TrEMBL record:
Family annotation (SMART domains): C2 (SM00239), VWA (SM00327)
Claim: Repeat is one of the keywords in the record: yes
UniProt keyword terms in alphabetical order: Repeat
Organism from which the protein derives: Asarcornis scutulata
Pfam family membership, one: Copine
Cellular component per GO, a single term: plasma membrane
Lineage of producing organism: Eukaryota, Metazoa, Chordata, Craniata, Vertebrata
Keyword check for Transferase: no
Protein name: CPNE7 protein
Name of the gene: Cpne7
Domain (VWFA): residue spans on this chain: 333-532
Amino acid sequence: PRAAATMGEAPEPSSQAPLAVLSKVELRVSCKHLLDRDTLNKSDPCVLLLMQSQGQWVEVDRSEVIKSNLNPVFAKIFTVDYYFEEVQKLRFEVYDSHGHAGVGTHDDDFLGGMECTVGQIVAQKRVTKPLFLKYGKFAGKSTITVISEEISGNNGYVELAFRAKKLDDKDLFSKSDPFLEIYRIDDDRSEQLVYRTEVRLGWIPPRTNPRVPSPAEPPLAPQVVKNNLSPIWEPFKVSLNSLCSCEEKRKLRCVVWDYDSRGKHDFIGEFFTTFEEMQKAMGENKVQWECMNPKYKIKKRNYKNSGVVVLLDLKIHRVYSFLDYIMGGCQIHFTVAIDFTASNGDPRNSCSLHYINPYQPNEYLKALVAVGEICQDYDSDKKFSALGFGARIPPKYEVSHDFAINFNPDNDECEGIQGVVESYQSCLPKIQLYGPTNVAPIISKVARVAADEERTKEASQYFILLILTDGVVTDMADTREAIVRASYLPMSIIIVGVGNADFTDMQILDGDDGVLRSPRGEPVLRDIVQFVPFREFKNASPTALAKCVLAEVPKQVVEYYSYKAFPPRCPQPDTPDSSLSSPQ
């Protein structure tokens, strides 16, 4: 599958252009109330990540094994490629590892699994669901939480280089083996592990050259340091989303531990800081904090600290991406507009493009479902506007080019994609197919809503209009004018040509081969139209059409908000954890 995972190191920034569609997403996993399968100790959990590819589940990566812990927070960061235009199905499997032939073998105990999509995780940012055993049985009270953050080159990155000096010695016959953990403190006061340094591994500058190397320079020869009270940890990179949710004043808790191979690490000390304070270390400056042990501070009269932690260097890079906007709370509002002109044929006739075959959906339904199933993961209320044009509608049976197919003029939204399908099927017997094929009224209708959204000056809602039509539009001049106006608004337009008509003249609306202009010669600000004939995908999988028409949407979203200089909104507080019904 098109999935990648990074073992034990921070991801390198991508060299892609800022508007590249492809992004990478990091997934952090924790569990609670796992089943205890061990007799003398507690379970030793490990998580496997699988992705569905061609109908098969393929392992992408696996976490570390955490000894004797029923509420593990895994340090492993799973990294997957993200495609907006695909439904990417994931499965997380948790095992109690017995450390023989590898996790997931018949020797290990299965503690539960959970399935979801990448789109669901990135749209919600944090997903908590129960774990299931085989045959849909709940794994007791076990839950798994997956938190997503973007880490592509389009995202903000910070590179940090830490060292410590004169840490407390926690070992009896040797010196401490220290490692550093950084936690982000969220709005609900919970702590999210951001990064854990390498354990018992650092490098000591040669005695002939005590100068600390800059991370930009080639590193000095690394040496394994098992007993070191003044370690220099390897520089590492984390996304700004991960470190501080892009909020410079968000509090961070940094903890230094003495490593223990049995998992009972000794607490050395802690300190609190913010990314705002860390930025003082840029350039030649250094920032340091006293590493404090609260118990020692109370008990020991002359206690000063348990050592000092120094931030040697900090480098930062910020560019906003599609996922920055989605994870910042930007909703994708999906509207479908269906052609009900007479050229489609009488819906009661099996030759009609609107014929409802009980055994196979028609082309309108296939296109609607293929695109709608992608968009629904990015709309929190799962309500979609469904409009029709080119028909005579009750009660007066006058021609309308922008009517609600649920016949509710005050609320044209339907509940989910299935609600759109049901409204489409129920409206067919009530209308008279007529004409002409005018789409400018519907483009203008959606544009008016998008204009209201623009006036909020926030990246809160972006509109996708899917137009399904069986022929070349009649009002081409008005349509071109409407598209030019819409190119200044937060919206994209997808036009799918249904049937066997000659759609050559429709290519003018797709700006891939040139710049679309209004009848007055004004060019579009952005290329926001994608046109494809459905017949090109007639024998392809249902996902092929969605991949084609939606691939440009992330680029169009970023282009619009970059032009308006609207940054992503601050992520909203996590909503209550969702529940998961039994697997199908």
